[in-house]
UniProtKB/TrEMBL annotation:
Keywords attached to this entry: Hydrolase
Record keyword Hydrolase present: yes
Domain of life: Bacteria
Protein name: Deoxyguanosinetriphosphate triphosphohydrolase-like protein
Organism of this sequence: Sphingomonas swuensis
HAMAP family in the record: dGTPase_type2
Amino acid sequence: MTLPGGIAARPAESRGRLHAEPDLGPRGPRDAFQRDRDRIVHSVAFRRLRHKTQVFVAPDGDHYRVRLTHSIEVAQIGRTIARALGLNEDLTEALCLAHDLGHPPFGHAGEDALDEALTAHGGFDHNGHTLRLVTCLETPYPHFDGLNLSWETLEGLAKHNGPVAKPEWALAEVDALLGLELDTWPTLEAQVAALADDIAYDNHDIDDGLRAGVLPLDLLLDQPFVARHWQAIEERWPDLPLERKVKALVRDQIGTMVGDLIAETRRRVAEAGAETTADVRGAGLALAGFSEALGGEERALKRCLYANLYNAPPLQPVRREAQRVVTNLANAYLDDPRLLPDAWHRGDDPRAVARNVADYVAGMTDPFAIKRHEALVGAVELPEKF
């Protein structure tokens, strides 16, 4: 059963784009949200995700996920959910593909370091930087900066995790231009994209953590959600090799989460009596989500992953070295802006310099950040395995 027809975002009813596009050439059969998705896929920032950390820094194994593969997996999950609910699949996919564009090198470790280095200048937030990338820093068009995405896509990127009470400076600037109504909830497409992200990394990080030997299986099996699925797999295929059981576990858990999310979202929409996108924005709460029971299990699983994977002792030296690299790079460019490439000299006052540094460092891939550090500061000592 899909949701009421008026609840899906409709490209024909889009609030439009910041810049008129009368002379960009043939447009083809695509609607507004399809063009947004394609602009994201063709962007430089999207290609750079190939060399940006998901869990493991500059992974030397071909089988570990990076930001690019993670974003593709999120898009697949998001599109599946959107189709089942009768939402706009293209808008959902665009939001899923773009949600991590603003990540600096080395994932959250790099983000923490860059934020601290720029504290005096407003800090750094990857979500705000995503908006800055798609509205300012990408320059594929002749007469304006940015990808000129539709209002609905920008709204979804700005607040896919819910209303934003205190936007940081990058998001505040975009909001001042476009009026993104940051105090309301976004479309269901954006809410689904955020949850698809949770589903993807909850499960795929388990896969990578087990493969790397960092995440102990016995600790995972202390989680009721995992134990329940593992037991079912053991009963179905007792003689299956461990590696295949893990793949089945990840697959089954994703299926359970997706099914629960679809059912719970239908229930919430019906309970709220929502029939339009305006109803969704004005509901005062998230209408997409997990059931109370599964939501509790999912939060417990996240706590387990933070304790035993993201903050695992074997990864701490890597995190510290990654933060050192980003901190040193940011400080080097702040101390001597002449070290920036010529194209990044866009103002001499401290505020402009800090933004140039943030934009430049955040755009680096893991390998490029390592090379720049070696050239400007000194050697980088990242363990080979992680």
